[in-house]
Amino acid sequence: MEPDRVLVRYGEIGLKSPGIRRHFENLLLKHIKVFLARKEIPYSKIIRERGRFFIPTSQPQKVAETASRVFGIVSSSPVWTVSANLEKIVALAGSLTPQLLCDGQKFAVRARRLKIHKFSSPEVATQVGAKIIEAANTTNQLVHVDLDNPDVEIHVEVRQKSAFIFTQIIKGPGGLPYGSQGVVLGLHSGGLDSPVAEWLMMKRGAKVIPLYFDAAAPVEKQFVDRAIKSAEILAEWMPEQNIELRIIPFYEILRRLQMPKYRKLTCILCKRMMYRIGAMVAAQEKARALVTGETLGQVASQTLTNLAILDSVVTVPIFRPLIGMDKTETMTLARRIGTYQVTSQDVGECFAVPSQPSIATTLADVHEAESQLPIEEMVLIAINNIKRVAVA
Amino acid sequence: MEPDRVLVRYGEIGLKSPGIRRHFENLLLKHIKVFLARKEIPYSKIIRERGRFFIPTSQPQKVAETASRVFGIVSSSPVWTVSANLEKIVALAGSLTPQLLCDGQKFAVRARRLKIHKFSSPEVATQVGAKIIEAANTTNQLVHVDLDNPDVEIHVEVRQKSAFIFTQIIKGPGGLPYGSQGVVLGLHSGGLDSPVAEWLMMKRGAKVIPLYFDAAAPVEKQFVDRAIKSAEILAEWMPEQNIELRIIPFYEILRRLQMPKYRKLTCILCKRMMYRIGAMVAAQEKARALVTGETLGQVASQTLTNLAILDSVVTVPIFRPLIGMDKTETMTLARRIGTYQVTSQDVGECFAVPSQPSIATTLADVHEAESQLPIEEMVLIAINNIKRVAVA
Fold it and tell me: Which of B65, B91, B72 is nearest to B80 (CA)?
């Protein structure tokens, strides 16, 4: 007997004011539906209850996994449903025993119930546990209770009219509904960090438009390929249609920024150019902030001095969700998001990186270097040559 | 028999260039010594090896716990030392058995060795495991191997001349040595979020100067008390002497910002004032960025629109390490840091919060409101009245 429905939980959203909560719940419902439709998973309807949704379905595992990809969702579980009657709950647990436990396994029953019921949570746990041992015995299986270190946790949740039995809790990303907080522009490098930074802003309810600067020589397609692939993986988390990666042709610009006299400054000049162009694209797209994958002290361009020199070139806010994270923490997140495999590929280094990039230059030096070039014209040409590649 | 020394590991720092690595290692050594001295824990010396330190000591548990509070340290372990000889390793494991394992426990031996040795890691694990079972038997204890789900993991690490046995790995914060990346100013509210944000920047190598705005009515000491207590807990992570919380008297300023005609804007006007004053204090202290605990979409003042209006008031970079985090993630970090208990205390709400704070105002409206007040004069008065309270 398969679970008959999926229980979907959302957390922080439940704390908002009633009007906002209703609005956010509607967004969550819409996003779950978009994802289920995208994967063509059958379900009959979505039932709304305070703090949770129920989705009756013949494919509970797929529905639960899909719902757990929606920003705002805390977790989901395929559940077996029975009426909120202790005898019936115990009977269901007994009949489920062969599929919940194998011979020799240790289990724990975790019970919760609304206080309206006459029986207590410990009573539910005790009776269900006893029934499971008995049911296992009838098929000559030996299972035993271990509350501290069980192989399987069997959850029983008793609500007003119905009770639910489940063993699996699939973690969702949490956060706020995608797009509920407005639009930001992601400086999407294709490397490990920026997709993680973009995903974290998506998690907090931002719609992210990814922008890639194609600085590779025209023959080196592996850079842009990696950026497209990682944008495609991010797009799987976006409950939208027709998602496009914006691409700025950047090779000629970067060659001009490689000025022999200011060779140590190339990286910071390059980044300032990306910020400038990013701010213009953000204005076009009504995005209210730039998102970058920068981390303090990770590489030469990410010193306090250099980050300040970068910030000063634009007025739009720069969000750096990784600023306080270690590489290992970013890698863990990248694995969770699904971008790790693609973005940890070594595709070679940028041709323009100097042998000794400056870690502590001054704004005056940077301005002097920039005064040698027609910066505004270069920005405008870049914006006018922007390309779009569909990633979903 | 107690472990005779502590093994201390650092990670990311090992990847830096030799010059920077040496500099960072020296900082780590210095910071470990400061913390050990602060707690008056005896040790004879710190031995430096590639990627790790060894600290011979009669108080291994205290030394390991203390070293694991140093930014840059990945983990530490109290270890038993023996020469890198398989027979001697096995003998030591045998004699340690009574203190490593209790009757009935499952264990796993995890062995690593440098390739210079003739024996392999699986040989080490097998022989050590067999010896432990035998040693337990001689005192009528029954222990058995369970590689997948052990109660105790017994690690054996064989280096060039010495080998180490340990069971405990105490996690450190990771990151970069405190202060190695320069100075930032923390807008320290005393609530849950800002100390976590400050700690994350400390973890990435920033020295943080905390600044508190005392906006409570003169009789309401609980606000400033909470801010001081949380700054004291942060200061325990700082390998410095004479750490002071800066306090700006802010009550009169906030009362003036409560303009009836612009009542909905009070929170954003208040925050802009804090940013302005923060930027001035940062300049005085040579701090290169402001750190705030803001998270996208958490409260009314943290919408994209409002964050942009905040950013535009200063030129110094704003670092928001929590921008992509959920409240539950921040709470988990606060527990780890030690600030949770103090900062989750409800000390009452700010008197100036309007019933309907604006979530989407315009910069023009904000400028109009600010034009009613002598902003620069108010900032100067605030700066001149700054106080300092010792927190370490």
Answer: B91
d(CA B106, CA B92): 19
Say yes or no: B138 and B191 in one domain: no
Q: What is the CATH number of the domain that holds B313?
A: 3.40.50.620
My answer on whether B216 and B355 are in the same domain is yes
Q: Using the beta-carbon criterion (under 8 Å), do A316 and B327 form an inter-chain contact?
A: no
At B56, the amino acid letter reads P
A4 in contact with B, Cβ within 8 Å: no
Residue partners of A226: CB distance under 8 A and separation at least 6 = A190, A342, A343, A345, A347
Torsion, Cα A66 A67 A73 A79, to 10 degrees, reads -120
3-state secondary structure (DSSP) of residue A71: coil
Among B174, B206, B297, the residue with its CB nearest the CB of A205 is: B297
ipTM of the assembly?
0.91
Domain closes at, from B171, B202, B225: B171
Nearest by CB to B12, from A184, A324, A327: name it: A327
Cα separation, A348 vs B340, whole angstroms: 44
Q: Which domain holds residue A314?
A: 183-390
Residues B84 and B147 in one domain: yes
Instruction: Record the pTM.
Output: 0.94
Residues of A in contact with B203 (CB under 8 A): 324, 326
Chain B residues within 8 A of A356 when measuring between CB atoms: none
The Cα of B218 is separated from the nearest Cα of chain A by a number of Å equal to: 32
What does the pLDDT profile of chain A (392 residues) look like in tens digits? 899 999 999 977 767 788 888 999 999 999 999 999 999 998 989 999 888 999 999 999 999 999 999 999 999 999 999 999 999 999 999 999 999 999 999 999 999 999 899 999 999 999 999 999 999 999 899 999 999 889 999 999 999 999 999 999 999 999 999 999 999 999 999 899 999 999 999 999 999 999 999 998 888 889 999 999 999 999 999 999 999 999 999 999 999 999 999 999 999 999 999 999 999 999 999 999 999 999 998 876 789 999 999 999 999 999 999 999 999 999 999 999 999 999 998 888 889 999 888 877 899 999 999 999 999 999 999 999 999 999 99
Clarify whether residues A31 and A138 are in a common domain: yes
In a domain, residue B176? The reply is no
- How many separate domains does chain B show? 2
The CATH number of whichever domain residue A52 belongs to comes to 3.30.2130.30
